[in-house]
Amino acid sequence: MKFTIKKQVLEKYISNLNSFTEKKDQSAVNSHIYFKIDEQGLVLKATDNEIGLKYLVTDVELKESGEATAHGKNLLDIIKNLKDGEITLSSENDNLHVKQNRSQFKIAMQRASDFPFFPKLENKDKFDINAGILSQSLKKVEYCIDRNNPKYEFTGALLDIKENGMNIVASDGRRLAVYELNISAGKNIKIIIPKRAITEIQKLLTQNIEIFYDETILIASAENFVFFTKLINGTYADYERLINSNFANKITLNRNEIIDGIKTVKLLSEDIKISFSKEIINFSTQNQLGEIAQTETETNLEIAGNYDIKVKSKNILDFLGAIESDSFEFNYNDAGMPIMLKSENLRIMIVQVSK
Question: Is 166 helix (H, G, I), strand (E, B) or coil?
Fold first, then answer.
């Protein structure tokens, strides 16, 4: 194997692929990045067996067809320290040689034939989606995912795919976010994508993609890359019953006023109290030392009497950071009961703190 490629191009791809290499066992073949070059171009692959990424690079000069591997971190460290310009990579006697002008490096390879196989697209259901829409939709609920939750299904986001649409759902047990996406998928299936996979795939979503999936694997395919992730095996809670709960009361609130009020008082404690009345919204908190913070804003609410909520400030600020509209709906029932916030296609139910 031998090819020449610009340093800037190779560094970009190797840097992205390093997120997918095996980190716990540095002697494993999948701590390496796989190379294969022929007349079609350069194929680069990395996987830790849970998620994986494959690139097809055409901006490369073929010298000799072949395949090789190189330890991902070691190779990236070398490339980063080279100057801009062309680099030549070649394999010889179980070593990968990296050369640029008078600089030369020799890296131990592993057998390319031992590198894990990537899942195939055959016999999988499929739908097309705009990458930008999918990325923005995942961001609407991603903050509710809890990577360390003992309920394994809460460590990812549910894609509830329906014939006439899709719901993207996330929960950490204290809040439940649902974003409704109006696409035509054609089939009914529920899949749970791990949070790590969601984080990585959003770095790639710059073009239209095809999504292939079955009960265990999701594959995102574009013109120059293929991404895969294993799915979380679990049954998600009956979120539709919860998110469609009836609320007796509803008021419309100004997004910026609520953000300003919460940020003013949350410096003392994450737990805050918000009191609503027709003309005033009061924000207050008290820490374990008995120190108190309080502020209020004038308003004009269509509300009968007064109503108080006690919540984690982060739970509301995350929602307000995910919406674009200037106002949102605040839905509530009796004191201490869960509340629901709504803006356009996004709804979030929040459990109040008990103290």
Answer: strand
Where helices occur in 126-268 by DSSP H, the ranges are 131-141, 195-202, 239-243, 255-265
Query: What is the token pair recorded at 300?
Result: 């004009």
Q: For 113-188, where are the alpha helices, taking DSSP H only?
A: 131-141
Please write the tens of the pLDDT for every residue from 135-178.
888 999 999 998 888 888 999 999 998 888 889 999 999 999 99
Element (H, E) at 180: strand 175-181
**Mean predicted confidence (pLDDT) in 282-309:** 93
Q: In this structure, are residues 100 and 83 in contact, taking their beta carbons and an 8 Å threshold?
A: yes
What does the alpha-carbon distance between residue 330 and residue 4 come to, in Å, rounded to a whole number? 59
Query: What residues have CB less than 8 Å from 156, skipping those under 6 apart?
Result: 145, 170, 192, 193, 194, 195, 197, 198, 231, 232
The closest of 246, 236, 191 to 218, measured between CA atoms, is 191
Instruction: Give the DSSP per-residue string, 194-223.
Output: EHHHHHHHHTT-SS-EEEEE-SSEEEEE-S
Cα–Cα distances in angstroms (integers) from residue 231 to residues 78, 79, 213, in the given order: 34, 33, 9
Q: Is the predicted pLDDT of residue 237 greater than 90, yes or no?
A: no
- Each residue's pLDDT tens digit, 176-203: 999 998 876 667 888 999 999 998 888 8
Structure tokens belonging to residue 201: 């795939």
Which residues on adjacent β-strands are paired with residue 274?
283, 309
CA angle 39, 40, 41 (to 5 degrees): 95
The helix/strand/coil state of 155 is helix
Dihedral sign of CA atoms 14, 16, 17, 19 in order: positive
The residue among 167, 284, 291 whose CA lies nearest residue 237 is: 167
pLDDT digits (tens, 9 = 90+) for 67-77: 999 999 999 99
